[in-house]
Amino acid sequence: MSSFPFKHICVIGTSGSGKTTFARVLAEKIGGDHIELDALYHGPNWSEPTEEEFTARIRNAMKSERWIIDGNYISRASQLQYADLIVWLDYSFVRVLSRIARRTLKRLITNEELWNGNKESWRLALTKNGMIYWVLHTYSRRRREFPVMLSSKYSHIAQQRFQRPRDADEWLRSIS
After folding, report:
1. For residue 112, with 0-12 CB atoms within 10 Å meaning exposed, 13-18 middle and 19 or more buried, which class applies?
2. Across the chain, which distance is largest between two alpha carbons, in Å?
3. How far is CA 151 from the centre of its chain?
4. Model confidence pLDDT, tens digit, residues 41-51
5. Which of 70, 89, 107, 173 sits CB 3.0–4.6 Å from 11 for a disulfide?
């Protein structure tokens, strides 16, 4: 059992900030379950669950003693209210966009499966449903909305904000 003081952690940040990688490492370090909201949300053929189905999937996944959830389904899911720590990966637009572009290209070349048989395609990547477009249209909004949300509705929950990946990596390394 880990001596890490937090048992229920939500990792948020704009797409491409590295939420899933960060959450996986943290889950391994503290012996918690990693819950990736994208995997719970995207069904086969990119199907989307109803609000009730999605909420039930999240609640079911959160039944373990320790969990680390990554994802930005904040308006659809209530996982933040159950957290005792919120980690915000708040990286620069250039860093996030370059990560998304590299990740998308890699997935296209390797034909990597994402969740439930879904794969990125050239057709998808070059449309408004692609991740590059998504980052271009959500980055600024998230940078405006997250501070307001975190300082009001979730101000009672411990928070850790990282603006540089090396600071986040250093923090992860400090956890025994």
Report:
1. exposed
2. 47
3. 19
4. 999 998 999 98
5. 70
- Assess contact for 76 and 151: CB atoms under 8 A: no
This prediction has a pTM of: 0.92
CATH superfamily of 8-173: P-loop containing nucleotide triphosphate hydrolases (3.40.50.300)
Helices (H), the chain: 19-30, 37-41, 51-61, 93-110, 122-125, 131-151, 165-173
Q: How far apart are CA 176 and CA 41, in angstroms?
A: 32
Scan for tokens 């039930």, then name that residue: 56
Location of structure tokens 């370090």: 29
Residue boundaries of the structural domains of the chain:
8-173
Q: Which DSSP letter does residue 16 get?
A: T
